[in-house]
Write a structure and sequence with these properties.
Blueprint: H1 4-19, E1 22-30, E2 37-47, E3 50-59, E4 63-68, H2 70-78, E5 85-92, E6 95-100, E7 108-113, H3 138-142, H4 157-176, E8 186-190, H5 196-208, E9 214-219, H6 222-234, E10 240-244, E11 257-264, H7 267-277, E12 282-288, H8 310-331, E13 334-340, E14 351-357, H9 364-378, H10 384-388
Parallel strand pairs: 8-9, 8-11, 9-10, 11-12
Antiparallel strand pairs: 1-2, 1-5, 2-3, 3-4, 5-6, 6-7, 12-14, 13-14
Helix pairs in contact: 4-5, 8-9
C-alpha cells in the first residue's frame, strides 16, 4: 500500500522520467514471491523504435532484460515501490532520492545532491561508459595509482580496474541494503592493505550517503596505516581514518557496511562474524585461501578418485567453504549473493560474497537444517564462521 513517502518518491520519479534527467533507478530489498530475485535496475535507452526504459531483473543466477515505453515503465515501477521492493534509489542529473520502508513502519525518504559523476544521460546501448572512479582523484595520485595529469601509471592498470569495479558493484548493493536514513553511515574495511578500495568507498559514500559518512580502514601493517593516514590528511578526506590491528583482534563497535577483501582463510569468517555482531546492513567479502575445510572433506564415493587430484580438491574446498558461509549468512538473517568480482585475467581471487540484511524474519529452523545438511555432506565438523556464530554443525542435529 502506498504511503506519503512512497508517493513523494514516485513524484520525483515521474518528473525525472518526464524531463529526461533520470540516469538510474535501483529497486532493492525484494520481498515479493520470487525468492531468487535480488534487485531491479532501470535506465533510459534509445532503440530503433525510439526512447525506452531498460528493466534488468537480477536473479541469483541470471539477469532478465526487457524494454518499456515511458507510460508502461512508470506504471510498472509504481506498482513495485513499497510493495515488492522495500528500498528504491533514484539518481538524476540534479538529485538523488532514496526510499526505504521497514516492516511495521511508515516509509522514509531522503533527498540529496546528484552524484558528482552524474552527467546528463546519453540513453543509448552503445554509449561510452563513464568511470565510477575518476583518474584525476587526488587520492589515486597519493597512492601511486595515477601520475600528474590523471594518467594511470604503468603496471597499475589492473589495480585501477579493480577499484573501478568495486565502486561499480558497491552502488547497487548500498541501494539494496536497509541502511539508516537518519544518521551518517559507517563503513569498516578490515584488512584494507594499502587502502585503494577504502579510499574508493569513502569517495563514493561522500556523494551517496545520507550525510558525511565515516570510513575506517583496519590494517595489521603499521607502515601501510601510516601511509594511508598521511594520504587521507593530505587529500582532505574528511571522515576517513585508519587504525592498526588484525581482523581477529580489532574491535568493531559500529558498522553499517563491513568490507573484507582477500582476507586469508578464516580471517574472512572473523570479519563476517564481527559485521554480523555489529548489526551491519551490508557485508561484502572476497575470500582468499580455503585451508580450514580442505583436510576435513569426506568425498562421496563417486568423487573419491577425482578429489585425489590436488587442484580439484582445492576447488572443491573453495566451493564447500563459500557455500557453507552463504548458508550460515542466510541463517543469520542475510540475503546472500556470490558472483565474480573481477575477471580472472586480473586476479585469481575474484569471487565476491555480498550479504544484505533482511527486513523480514527468516525460517531459521529450515535455514539451520540446510546448513547442517551441507556440512554433513562434506564431512565438515568445524568451520570458523559457524563457531563465531555459536552454530552447532553436528550432524546429529540434522532434522
Amino acid at each position: 500500500m502506498a504511503d506519503e513517502s512512497s508517493e513523494k518518491f514516485l513524484t520525483y520519479l515521474r518528473a525525472a522520467m518526464g524531463d529526461g534527467s533520470l540516469t538510474r533507478l535501483t529497486l532493492g530489498a525484494h520481498r515479493g514471491s520470487d525468492p531468487t530475485l535480488r534487485r531491479l535496475v532501470v535506465r533510459p535507452v534509445v532503440l530503433q523504435a525510439g526512447p525506452r526504459f531498460a528493466f534488468v531483473w537480477s536473479h541469483a543466477t541470471r539477469d532478465i532484460t526487457k524494454n518499456f515505453a515511458a507510460d508502461d515503465a512508470l506504471a510498472l515501477v509504481t506498482g513495485l515501490v513499497g510493495t515488492d521492493f522495500a528500498t528504491a534509489n533514484l539518481s538524476t542529473t540534479t538529485v538523488t532520492v532514496q526510499f526505504e520502508q521497514r516492516p511495521g513502519r511508515p516509509g522514509r525518504i531522503h533527498v540529496g545532491p546528484a552524484l558528482e559523476e552524474t552527467a546528463a544521460p546519453v540513453p543509448a546501448h552503445d554509449r561510452t561508459k563513464k568511470r565510477s572512479v575518476e583518474t584525476g582523484s587526488a587520492w589515486l595520485r597519493g597512492l601511486g595509482v595515477t601520475a600528474d595529469g590523471g594518467k594511470v601509471r604503468k603496471g597499475m592498470e589492473a589495480k585501477f580496474r579493480q577499484v573501478h569495479r568495486f565502486v561499480e558493484l558497491l552502488g547497487p548493493l548500498i541501494a539494496e541494503a536497509p541502511l539508516p536514513t537518519d544518521r551518517p553511515w559507517t563503513l569498516v574495511d578490515m584488512g584494507c592493505g594499502k587502502g585503494y578500495l577504502t579510499f574508493a568507498a569513502h569517495a563514493y559514500l561522500a556523494r551517496a550517503a545520507a550525510g558525511p559518512a565515516r570510513v575506517l580502514g583496519i590494517e595489521a601493517r603499521a607502515d601501510l596505516v601510516e601511509l594511508c593516514g598521511r594520504v587521507a590528511r593530505e587529500t582532505g578526506a574528511d571522515g576517513l581514518s585508519f587504525a592498526a590491528g588484525t581482523i581477529a583482534g580489532a574491535a568493531v563497535e559500529q558498522a553499517d557496511i563491513l568490507v573484507a577483501l582477500h582476507a586469508c582463510d578464516t580471517a574472512t569468517d572473523d570479519a563476517l562474524a564481527k559485521g554480523i555482531a555489529a548489526g551491519a546492513a551490508l557485508l561484502v567479502v572476497a575470500p582468499c585461501c580455503h585451508r580450514e575445510v580442505r583436510p576435513q572433506l569426506v568425498a562421496p564415493d563417486v568423487l573419491e578418485d577425482a578429489l585425489r587430484h590436488g587442484i580439484l580438491r582445492e576447488r572443491q574446498a573453495e566451493f564447500a567453504t563459500d557455500s557453507l558461509r552463504a548458508a550460515l549468512l542466510g541463517w543469520a538473517g542475510y540475503s546472500t549473493s556470490i558472483f565474480e568480482f573481477i575477471s580472472p585475467e586480473h586476479t585469481g581471487k575474484n569471487l565476491m560474497i555480498s550479504a544484505v540484511k533482511r527486513t523480514r524474519p527468516a525460517d531459521t529452523a529450515e535455514a539451520a537444517r540446510k546448513v547442517r545438511a551441507l556440512a554433513a555432506f562434506y564431512g565438515i565438523r568445524h568451520q570458523t564462521l559457524a563457531a563465531r556464530l555459536g552454530f552447532d554443525l553436528s550432524p546429529a542435529t540434522v532434522g
